[in-house]
Amino acid sequence: MVALFMLIWNVLKRWLGIRITVIRRLPAAKSLDVHLLGLAAAVTGVLMASAIAYQTTLLTQLWVTLFWIGLILLGVLFGSGITTLLAVITFLILTLAGGSSVLFILLRGYVLGYAFGAVFAILYNDLVYLYLRIFERRLTKIAFAVYDDREVNIIKSPIQEEERALRELAPPRAELLYDYEIAHPPAAPYTILFVANPFIRRRKAQQADPDVFAADPILDDRELFLNSVNRALRSFEDNEALGHPEIWSRVRVVVIFDDSLKTEAASDWALIEELQIPFVINDETIENILDPLPQMTARVSNLLQRYETRRGERLVRIEDVDIIFGMSAWPNYIRSFAHFSDYREGQGGIPDRAGTGAGFHFEPAPNNGGGRPVNANGLIHEFRVSEPGRVALSVVGANQRTFIHEFAHAMSSMINGAVADEYTDRILVIQEAKDLNTPRPLYINQIERPFHNSPRFNGVPKVFADYNGAVFHSDLAHPSAKEHWLGYFPDRPNPDVGCTMDRYFGHYRFDNLIGNFMYDRLTAKLNRP
Amino acid sequence: MLPFNPSFRRLLNKFLPQLRDEDLDRHESLIALRQQLLIERDLSPPPQIAGEQTAPALRDIATLIERATQLADAILRPFRTEFRLLLRLYDHQRRQQLFKGRFTPFPTSPSSFVQFVRHVAVGLVLEPLIYIRIFILQIRRALAELTSAQGIAVAAAAALLLLGVITLNNQTVGVPKPDISATAEIDSGRAVHTIEIQKMSESQFDPNHPQPLEINIATESVTDAFDGTVTIRTIAAVIEIIAPTNLASAPVVWSKAGQYDGLEYQLVLMQENGNSTQIVIAARAADQVAVSAQDSVVRSEYHRKSGIRKVTVRSVYTLTSTTAMSLK
Asked: Which residues contact B293 (CB under 8 A, 6 or more apart)?
């Protein structure tokens, strides 16, 4: 069993003094789903048990036939839960009734069939895995490597010396997933930081209640954390904007996993909270959303300084960090939430102190039907941010798309153009025109038409906006839009492909405008002094 | 923030079909809007635009957040318990998937192994319980909406199912035990019966407390009950029996004496007619073990279509001698 071998190896390697963990990407290969094959074999087991040995009994009893069909349906419907349940029932019948009833025979066929299918699938997958690792080594790539005994690791950087664990390992270049050679790497690369959240602040019933913290399970599972980072990297590199080789090759990725924090004061190190809703109606709202704490940036900064003090080396400063992904495995909170860059709780958008950056021109189409004018003057893609974009990410609920979706929110700026979700609209809660008079940041990908209480219909303008001299059209067939929505969005590169910021509609890409905006913003940051 | 993960949506669709896709879309949109408004409330009020009415914007945004919360909540409120259960179920299933690599369903590091074991242990109890709870809730909900005709139909279906389970549990079939020690054939002239005699372990006998021993003789397959070969497979010990008195008057059709493990035995086919067969296994040990026959039940079925005749003989005997200890 490969899993058992790897488990033993992971235990032994500490004793052997091997202190680097390598995360690999295997090529696409057909593998069997253990559970599904188990179910299929379980059904076959029941069929065989009934058809071969006990056909006379089954065929002559209506009740038996009905139960037999029901058993198969239940097993397929409920999967592993019912398999477990049936195994228990089988055991009970065996114990109490002596194991000679037809019911027992059928159940035994089911459970044994499931076991056979599952074991077969495991062995098959093991063989495929071994084949790939032994005979197809050129297709197996190293995504990144980390030191087991260091809390902070740079796992990817255009400055190759920063990838210390990988360099120490010195694998053949052909085995590297990111085999980039940058002759002149940026002085301060665009930096994405992943940190394992040590504690979570629980939701308070009343705002005046004292803070309650709990340990986040992700700190007990380093493998889950590293695999989640690997998933995030895959999501980024597959993206048409961030994953473009000339951008992605210049992005730096830092990971922090410090399990010594488990013994520290939770109130000093918590990075994420259960969303605190100030307007809960009789505590009725069902919540499953994680939220970055306002102190996340300061605490990550403390973590970096702590590492510097402990190890005597500076890897990265908080000023160099553009995005922080707080990774959590907190149970039942499966939805992630991002805060824009330059956003500070209670203060809104805070400009960077230096205020330097590359200016850009964004002019929404003037004929938006008389909607609110968008204040889009003096916009810049700032070199640095006053507050990094922050993401509270549930590794349990996240799929491939979640990482890049939240990244898009977090990399955009509260004051220099924010990227909004495209599956919502303020009309859902607007009751009168004055409701619209609430502050909004400049959303790059959403413009509102006026609220109207008349039969007059304002169609979506053909032109969405002028961005840096290029005209971007509106999406006249936005898939999420309802009949009464005020907002409209930029067009998509392909009408058959949904926007990454929209609801799930199969394949996804960014709107043309978002893609350009992200590209320019990242370019500006990669050229910062 | 993204809408619900599609796999969670599928779970909701499967267990809460009452929640339409439009409802879920609206809920997701409202929650996304509320999250957006939560950030927007920290912005300073926008500059006033000529002709626009001055309004206390920040107080208004609080109202909008509250409204979004209420509207989103109203959609899920009727299904609160189910939703929470499904959330837990989904969380559990997702963790199972995360522990799996593409090629192995097991964790490969000590830390994840501990998590895995903890998770499986919880899941073994949690998952069936959640399924059962959701079903009870769903059944209650469905029953509340049933018409009387539908109610009768459901009750009939439930009774049918229960009857099926009871029938199955009462149906016994001959399961050959692995430790067959001897076989004997009985040729009654119309059929050949094969009897397999199983050795019993010493521990199964308590000489101080006579206990019933069960002999099951069942026809396993019959090609032609009246003209072909009849095979009877029995699960039995070599039982020491004195010829049963209550069947003494029955005609002996066939008998065969033999010896097994120091015990003399005699197999006697006492009687056979078109519908039933009674078989007595008689054995006589050297030291006069005494066992009396208590009961003899014969059931015979004839399947007209296939011509298959099934004979089941069940006899119960009581052991009365300590010398059965010699049986090994």
From this structure: B241, B244, B246, B247, B280, B315, B316, B317
